[in-house]
Amino acid sequence: MKRLIAFLLFVLTTSLYAQSEIPLPKAPSKIEFANVVVNVDRHVQAQLDELIRGLLMPENAFLQAKLERMQWYFPIIEQILREEKVPDDLKYLAVMESNLYPDALSSSGAVGFWQFKTPTALEMGLRIDNDIDERKYIYSSTKAAAGYFKKNNEQFNNWVMCIYAFNQGAGGAAKELPKAWQSSSFVEFNRQTPEYLIKALANRIAFEYKLNRTKPSESTFIVYPTQNQSLNDIANKLNVDPIELKNYNVWAGKRFIPDGKTYNVLVPTKAENAGKSLALIREVEANAPTQKGVYPILKRLTKVATSDEDPIFYKINNKQGILARPGNEAAQLAMKGKVKLGSFLFFNDMSDRDLIKTGKVYYLEKKDKRGPVQFHTAAKGQTLWDISQLYGIRLKKLLKYNRIKNAEPIQAGQVVWLQSKRPRNQKIEIRPVPNTEETEENKPIPVLAEYNTSDDTEKASNATSNTHRVIDPTAQALDEPKTIVITQEPEEQLAEPVAKEEEKPDPNTPEYHVVQKGETLFAISEKYNISVTKLREINGLKPSSVLQYGEILKLKGEPVTYVRPAQNESEEMEEKEPVRISEPKANPKPNVEYHTVRSGQTLYSISKMYGCSVEDIQNWNQIRGTNIEVGQRLRVSQVSGNNAYSPSRTHVVRKGDTLFNIAQRNNVSVQDLRQWNNLRGNNIYIGQKLKIK
């Protein structure tokens, strides 16, 4: 009788379990993973099915907590991967490495979200000390991970190989993975495939499936950018539990955020209270006192931006300013700020060839004749233009006060006069400065760049710049200069420039050259008897620029450089209305249909190269905004015989093509490509003709 009862209980339990068991995704025979098409053999399919079951079963509190952490951290990770142009699938690697625990610690000593060991973390620029451990900071660690992936992809040109290199290093990946995988968009997972890669794919399949069937979390994060403040003070200001705040910000080792860099403190809150928490953060920021001696003085005026096109206004040194957002150009900022382009350039002491840098605040009204303090000590690589933007003083006045003719780089530690003219008999003063690679001018402005309108969650702009067009948020003003002097004044000892022998162009040399596969600047220079230096100059190429197949190079013309004209010191000229900046002369190119975008180029600069308008390029390439990417191929002339650009074109699939990179190059989505070509999945083959509208 007891055996019968036990048997019936077993049957009943098994039946109930079968009814309650959730469906699980099945491993496919072919799948696109990290922009690579993966063919999966039967052995690996069975292995994947087992791993997926282990990841999603049993459906307990541990699994629910992991899924909730994905909902919290994935938006941050996705944004950084997108900005770094790294495949979105790599976010699942952080789940596999750490379960998204910020303080995860492995037996080998790897730490944080992405499990960086100390040597690798330091190599990737992460800070590790008693105050801060950026391996546990989701923003810096994710950016470092993206940088590590990109570095390896330069060698392998295959993101799946980069995943294995993240675990075994580039040497291990090159040794253990098939050489045929390099630069290939197709790979095969079989019995010889390392288990790490199979687990990575299982995590992607399992959690992508599960997240699409999981209710949104009742909790969320609000971002609070700050520095020089303790977590306890933040908790008191925002009425949150200090212990809970510490748990989500374990990167701050002493519960204090030091000055010198702005960090995003993640503030946990209920999703339904996110709006109230955000409003409280804005109120705290608005009422925060300005630190004495720190310039520029910034105050955000625009509380909410409903789209990427909305302007964000600031008070910068008590003057009207506007934040440069991704893709903005001078003409757009002028239009949004309701000033003329010539006036905008005049207010910021710029020319129409100077580039706008994302995340910087530009002036919308005239700067002052004098600075707010008497002196400033120049940092390494700093120019007088930087200082003029820093303190809101006109560049022309700054040049005059310091008896300098051009806004060229000045010596690190040089004391710059901001309110009056340095006496002629007083020597230039040089102060000692810290011998560091990164100056304050290279740090991002601690400003909020955008708002997510779906949940009203505030995000911080983490844009950084390594150019001289930077506003320094933490520059310290000086009260009195010291008495360290140098014995000679540079401006009175100017050397005459040595005239170079001008290269005489061959009259038979064509005006343009189309870059072929494998060609280098040296090969092109040898072919046309033109120096590499001159090729770089007339095409505006940097030493780090990489030639793209199909790119059009000029072989004749003037160098694409700009020298700021010497400033006239007369007081009368300064008070006149700004002179309208003349448009750059168009440089039309005959018989050129396409242009490959290079680093630093914008739609505006490209339009001037080919004698067309920005609107023309947008229409010909069906671009809605002004965002373009390096390597993108743009049509720069009308189709011959037609008055308008044809609404559809054909792309022939080449070796290495995937739907993802074809969509990126043509400014369309993968979904559009599938719809236009009646494709059910992501599989394409060499020679296939794809319709692009």
What does this molecule look like?
- With 693 residues, this protein is of the alpha+beta class.
- Among the domains are: 30-211, Lysozyme (Orthogonal Bundle), CATH 1.10.530; 218-289, no CATH class; 512-554, Membrane-bound Lytic Murein Transglycosylase D, Chain A (Roll), CATH 3.10.350.
- It is built from 22 helices and 23 strands.
- The strands form ten sheets. The protein has a four-stranded antiparallel β-sheet, with no helix packed on it.
- Strand 15 and strand 16 (457-459) form a beta hairpin.
- Helix 3 crosses helix 6 and helix 6 (138-156) crosses helix 7.
Descriptive tags:
single chain, 693 residues, alpha+beta, Lysozyme, Membrane-bound Lytic Murein Transglycosylase D, Chain A, four-stranded antiparallel beta sheet, three-stranded mixed beta sheet, 22 helices
- Highest-level CATH class of the domain at 30-211: Mainly Alpha
Taking all Cα atoms into account, the compactness measure Rg is 29 Å
What fraction, in percent, of the residue positions are helical?
25-40%
Given the helix and strand composition, which structural class is it?
alpha+beta
CATH architecture of the domain at 30-211: Orthogonal Bundle
Short description:
The protein has 693 residues and is of the alpha+beta class.
Give the helices and strands, then pairings.
Blueprint: H1 2-20, E1 30-33, E2 36-40, H2 42-56, H3 61-83, H4 91-98, H5 118-123, H6 138-156, H7 159-176, E3 186-189, H8 195-211, E4 219-226, E5 229-230, H9 231-238, H10 242-247, E6 256-257, E7 263-270, H11 274-287, E8 294-295, E9 298-300, E10 313-316, E11 319-323, H12 330-336, H13 341-347, E12 361-363, E13 375-377, H14 384-391, H15 395-401, E14 415-417, E15 450-452, E16 457-459, E17 475-476, E18 512-514, H16 521-528, H17 532-539, E19 552-554, H18 571-574, E20 594-596, H19 603-609, H20 614-621, E21 633-635, E22 649-652, H21 659-665, H22 670-676, E23 689-692
Helix pairs in contact: 2-8, 3-6, 4-8, 6-7, 12-13, 19-20, 21-22
